[in-house]
Write a structure and sequence with these properties.
four-stranded mixed β-sheet, 16 helices, alpha+beta, N Utilization Substance Protein A, Chain:P, domain 4, five-stranded mixed β-barrel, 17 strands, OB fold (Dihydrolipoamide Acetyltransferase, E2P), about 45% helix
Length: about 475
């Protein structure tokens, strides 16, 4: 094996690029070097490079096309003469000569004629090709062998050096971009390289990914050198190569980590139906299996909680509730409100709304801190959920009866959405009770005043 071939293979191994792409880059650079120093602009230079010997074979390759008409040929000759005389500035840079450019303004040409074109750099007319090869046919390649001039090897090497380096860089960038583009939507391991302001840069082995502020888990610390799992959210082409946008906040990372850590999910025995997440705090994941022999929740938890604990650690200590999916909305909503147990549920399928009744001691558990539990349950199930306690239910019934009294004030029902607290209902109920008591007291005071007035009138009449 020659030293040149060894060097090429070493570059391929280090840069993780294909051998054929490097050889192609070398041949393109050698062709550019020959065209610059020895060729002309009407030659279609192709170089065949042999890495074993370091030698090159140079060719001018043409494609046989139909003969031009006399008018087209005359127009081309005129343009060539003008180019030589320097009468048409910039015309020498033109490469394609379409018949549309040569036609006189006598009338429109047919669509077939307009599409015809002749490029003297890459094409050769049939009549000229027949002089070289007697059985030449339209569409055939005619290859002209060119001699390698003296000093070409040394000069070509100098000229091609920078071109080869640039080509290899372009190939490397394209290879990395394509590789990560194929992994878009996947979770991979990375090492925290550095933190600059609000951006965290993750070393992904072959490239560097960016974890922006809005894709970070709130409160999570990123220590340089620490290993981390990240979700590839987007890969786009930039000036310096592939720009890889990562995420730790996405709901998809929860799905992917579950699939990576739990074999039953990986082989399709258990299915993830939905995920609701508030990154850094809590997640709910709905799972389902149609196999009677598999416990979906137990599969995800693992013996003594080993599997779920591994997932929690990967998510930075985030709490995870595993919910068993059910086609029955009532059962699914009941499961989604775990760990709270419900007493009853009223379903409004038309408006996709559910009113859930819980015992008073389970009310705060069902709602969760700042309404988080019921909010996540609503997002997981896709239903609007109102939670009331048994005591609140009695109060509502009582005040509905009061509302029917002609002397009482009208009471509007309180709508508890998945982001409000049941304590608001209690406050409204107490407020209504106070107003009712005040109104009753005013009536009693008025009656007392009327009685006092009647007594005074009686005393006066006796006198």
């Amino acid at each position: 094996m020659s030293e040149l071939l060894s060097a090429i293979k070493q570059v391929c191994d280090e840069k993780k690029i294909e051998y054929d792409l490097v050889i192609s880059a070398i041949e393109s650079s050698l062709a550019a070097a020959y065209r610059k120093d020895y060729g002309n602009k009407l030659q279609n230079i192709k170089v065949k490079f042999n890495p074993e010997t370091g030698k090159s074979k140079i060719h001018d390759v043409k494609i046989v096309v139909e003969d031009l008409t006399e008018e087209e040929q005359r127009e081309i000759d005129e343009i060539e003469e003008k180019k030589k005389a320097g009468l048409e500035k910039g015309e020498s840079e033109r490469k394609n000569f379409k018949k549309e450019e040569f036609r006189k303004e006598e009338g429109p040409e047919s669509e077939e004629e307009t599409e015809r074109k002749f490029n003297p750099k890459t094409d050769i007319q049939l009549k000229d090709a027949l002089l070289i090869k007697k059985d030449a046919k339209i569409g055939e390649e005619i290859v002209f062998d060119l001699e390698e001039p003296e000093g070409y090897g040394r000069m070509a090497a100098q000229t091609a050096k920078q071109v080869i380096i640039q080509k290899i860089r372009e190939i490397e960038k394209e290879t990395i971009f394509n590789e990560f583009k194929d992994q878009e939507g996947e979770v991979i391991n990375g090492v925290i390289q550095r933190v600059e302001g609000r951006l965290v840069f993750i070393d992904l082995d072959k490239s560097i990914g960016i974890l922006p502020m809005d894709e970070q888990i709130p409160g999570e610390r990123y220590n340089v050198g620490g290993r981390i799992k990240v979700y590839i959210k987007e890969v786009r082409s930039g000036i310096r190569g592939a720009e890889i946008i990562l995420s730790r906040k996405s709901e998809e990372i929860v799905k992917k980590i579950f699939t990576m850590e739990i074999p039953e999910l990986a082989n399709g025995l258990v299915e993830i139906k939905a995920v609701a997440r508030e990154a850094g705090s809590r997640s709910k994941i709905a799972i389902y299996t149609d196999s009677e022999n598999i416990d979906p929740v137990g599969s995800c938890v693992g013996q003594r909680g080993i599997r779920i604990q591994t997932i929690i650690n990967e998510l930075g200590g985030e709490k995870v509730d595993i919910i068993e999916y059910n086609d029955d909305p009532a059962k699914f909503i009941s499961n989604a409100l775990a760990p709270a147990k419900i007493m009853g549920i009223d379903i409004d399928e038309q408006n996709k709304k559910a009113i859930v009744k819980v015992s008073e001691d389970k009310l705060s558990l069902a709602i969760g801190k700042s309404g988080q539990n019921v909010r996540l349950a609503a997002r997981l199930t896709g239903w609007k959920i109102d939670i009331i306690s048994s005591g609140q239910e009695a109060e509502i019934i009582k005040f509905e009866e009061v509302a029917n009294d002609a002397d009482s004030i009208e009471i509007e029902k309180i709508d508890i959405d998945n982001s409000s607290k049941s304590s608001e209902l209690v406050a409204e109920v107490e407020k209504t009770k106070e107003e009712k008591v005040k109104k009753t007291r005013k009536k009693e005071e008025k009656k007392l005043e009327e009685k006092k007035g009647e007594k005074k009138v009686k005393k006066t009449s006796k006198k």
